[in-house]
Amino acid sequence: MFSDTSKTKKTYKTVSSSFGKNLKVTIFGGSHEPHIGVTMSGLPDGIPIDLDQIRRFLARRAPGNSIFTTPRKEPDEPEVLSGLLDGKTTSEPLTFLIRNTNTRSGDYAAHQDIPRPAHADYTAAVKYGGTINMAGGGPFSARMTAPLCIAGAIALQLLEDRGISIGAHLYSIEKVQDTPFDPVQVQTNDFAVVRSHSLPVLNESKGHAMEEAIRAAMSEGDSVGGMVECCALGLPPGVGGPMYDGLEGHLSQIFFGIPAVKGVEFGNGFDCASLRGSQNNDAFTMDGDRVKTITNHHGGILGGISSGMPLICRLAFKPTPSIAKEQHSVSLCNKTNETMHITGRHDPCVAIRAVPVVEAAMAVGLLDLLLECDKFLY
Ligand SMILES: Cc1cc2nc3c(=O)[nH]c(=O)nc-3n(C[C@H](O)[C@H](O)[C@H](O)COP(=O)(O)O)c2cc1C
Ligand SMILES: C=C(O[C@@H]1CC(C(=O)O)=C[C@@H](OP(=O)(O)O)[C@H]1O)C(=O)O
């Protein structure tokens, strides 16, 4: 059984995970541990970091802010541990902590023995056998996306200096679809429009229809899945490489680290399988002395290398695993079939709060590759 770790001295093994080549990002802690955090190594020295911009970015992801998100309220205040002097990066790795202030581990008392369908309880029990603190989903929880957002907010500051901006929106929930980004005409103002709405959508009336779909599922003790579309503007052509150095693979590894992501597509994605070459090919054209494409079915990546057109991708999020309906599971101790009821605080649709998380993942992934290009500039 899980104890409330804020009140007892029980210690667990810690787990962390890392990604990145030139910019290495390590995320550590757990949802019901004293803290979560992130270390970034490979950032250039002497770069000013705007802590208020980080706070504003974290607030877009934070739990507890609407009836359509988990009620767990957290201040999500970023604390600098190392790597910042007089507001500028040093040669030390940059480490931030966020303290967990609102854990309720009793909600998870039963799930070490009776795992929740579709969450990580079962596979974590197989791998770690109760040696890590899985209350709240432990290191598998979406809470771990808060430190990812710190890294993302910092990456966005550096990308902005290079004229690159990133924005995402809730592309669909169940069968309701927002207006997609125009793959050629998309502009930063679209990102501002999304951020001005209560649900992060381009078309507010579609947002209301999405709210209805979520309400309907909630009234049945259920959850809904959804998709997030993300775009990078201003990315120069030539970033990436062939095969395993490709931009799609590089970004996808970071995207799939976000809990509940079950699919990633770039440009026309899965739809291109039903098209002909003449429908899917993007004709080249000159725009002054710049090469552009007239359409953008390729989503800004050809051969794993950026083409200079807007980079467009979509991520599919599964419905929240923890639902209030009765479900079938097993007792791992007794080896019996069981029925279970999940209580506690959960997002009815994870895709809503995932919108800034996807932006963060894309920002860190792009900065990682761009730092390789600029290695000799610093
Ligand atoms: C922003 C966000 C919020 C989430 N909130 C919840 C939640 O409240 N309850 C839950 O059971 N799962 C939630 N999830 C999903 C689980 O963390 C995830 O399904 C679980 O860790 C298993 O990982 P997998 O789905 O990638 O296999 C959330 C995911 C994201 C991205
Ligand atoms: C706390 C956050 O979301 C959590 C993500 C989550 C999960 O299983 O992923 C389960 C819930 O955890 P708890 O039961 O501790 O409230 C969510 O509230 C957050 O995103 O900051």
UniProtKB/TrEMBL annotation:
<feature type="binding site">
    <location>
        <position position="345"/>
    </location>
    <ligand>
        <name>FMN</name>
    </ligand>
</feature>
<comment type="similarity">
    <text>Belongs to the chorismate synthase family.</text>
</comment>
<dbReference type="InterPro" id="IPR035904">
    <property type="entry name" value="Chorismate_synth_AroC_sf"/>
</dbReference>
<dbReference type="Pfam" id="PF01264">
    <property type="entry name" value="Chorismate_synt"/>
</dbReference>
<dbReference type="GO" id="GO:0005829">
    <property type="term" value="C:cytosol"/>
</dbReference>
<keyword id="KW-0521">NADP</keyword>
<feature type="binding site">
    <location>
        <position position="61"/>
    </location>
    <ligand>
        <name>NADP(+)</name>
    </ligand>
</feature>
<comment type="subunit">
    <text>Homotetramer.</text>
</comment>
<feature type="binding site">
    <location>
        <begin position="318"/>
        <end position="322"/>
    </location>
    <ligand>
        <name>FMN</name>
    </ligand>
</feature>
<dbReference type="GO" id="GO:0009423">
    <property type="term" value="P:chorismate biosynthetic process"/>
</dbReference>
<dbReference type="GO" id="GO:0008652">
    <property type="term" value="P:amino acid biosynthetic process"/>
</dbReference>
<keyword id="KW-0456">Lyase</keyword>
<keyword id="KW-0288">FMN</keyword>
<dbReference type="InterPro" id="IPR020541">
    <property type="entry name" value="Chorismate_synthase_CS"/>
</dbReference>
<comment type="function">
    <text>This reaction introduces a second double bond into the aromatic ring system.</text>
</comment>
<comment type="pathway">
    <text>Metabolic intermediate biosynthesis; chorismate biosynthesis; chorismate from D-erythrose 4-phosphate and phosphoenolpyruvate: step 7/7.</text>
</comment>
<dbReference type="GO" id="GO:0009073">
    <property type="term" value="P:aromatic amino acid family biosynthetic process"/>
</dbReference>
<dbReference type="InterPro" id="IPR000453">
    <property type="entry name" value="Chorismate_synth"/>
</dbReference>
<keyword id="KW-0285">Flavoprotein</keyword>
<dbReference type="GO" id="GO:0004107">
    <property type="term" value="F:chorismate synthase activity"/>
</dbReference>
<keyword id="KW-0057">Aromatic amino acid biosynthesis</keyword>
<keyword id="KW-0274">FAD</keyword>
<feature type="binding site">
    <location>
        <position position="303"/>
    </location>
    <ligand>
        <name>FMN</name>
    </ligand>
</feature>
<dbReference type="GO" id="GO:0010181">
    <property type="term" value="F:FMN binding"/>
</dbReference>
<keyword id="KW-0028">Amino-acid biosynthesis</keyword>
<protein>
    <recommendedName>
        <fullName>Chorismate synthase</fullName>
        <ecNumber>4.2.3.5</ecNumber>
    </recommendedName>
</protein>
